[in-house]
Amino acid sequence: MTDASPENTLILTLKGGDVTIALKPDLAPNHVARIKELVRDGFYDGVVFHRVIDGFMAQTGDPTGTGMGGSGQNIKAEFSQEPHLRGTCAMARAADPDSADSQFFICFQESSWLDGQYTVWGQVTDGMDHVDGITKGEPPANPDKIVKAVLAADA
User: Fold this and answer.
1) Beta strands in the chain (DSSP E)
2) How far apart are CA 27 and CA 90, in angstroms?
3) Tens digit of pLDDT for each residue in 31-50?
4) CA 44 to CA 40: how far, in whole Å?
5) Residue 128: phi, psi to the nearest 5?
6) What is the pLDDT of residue 3?
């Protein structure tokens, strides 16, 4: 179940337009709380999509743009059986399950091999066409960025 309240609705402004994400505090309360904190601090504003694999996912959340950076605060895994479907938002991490920080990815399509191994914290409810339009590459030659990230409650 998704809480569609403004407090649990994230809006990412991309070059093509706005992407609305329903946050899932019922699945990942600690990750959702940390993402809200980072959003309210302006952490994601201007951050690039540094790893974008066609037919798989778009990854962002690293202020260095290299895939090696973060906010400096790891979050303990909150794995669930929530499936990785088109529009699913989940935390990126290193080999250590408890290494998620600020990086996350949005799935372009169903990616069931990820189920139970990454913390799912949201679902795109509108604007998935804008996610589809993110420049592809590992890293993209001219990466797209999150122009602005805001919670609907603060918009």
Assistant:
1) 9-14, 17-23, 51-53, 57-60, 88-91, 104-107, 120-126, 148-151
2) 11
3) 999 999 999 999 999 999 99
4) 9
5) -60, -25
6) 58
Rounded CA separation 12/121 (Å): 15
Say if 32 falls within a structural domain.
yes
Are 10 and 153 in contact by the 8 Å Cβ rule? The answer is no
pLDDT value at residue 1: 47
Low-confidence ranges of the chain (pLDDT < 70): 1-3
Rounded Cα distance between 75 and 81, Å, is 18
Dist CA 71 CA 102 (whole Å): 6
Q: Say how many domains are in the chain.
A: 1
Which domain CATH number covers 79? 2.40.100.10
Q: Are 29 and 146 in contact (CB under 8 A)?
A: no
Residue numbers of the domain that contains 99? 6-154
Specify if 1 maps to a domain: no
- CA distances, 84 to each of 32, 42, 114, 145 (Å): 17, 27, 7, 23
User: Cβ distance 140 to 57 under 8 Å?
Assistant: no
What confidence score (pLDDT) does residue 4 get? Answer: 77
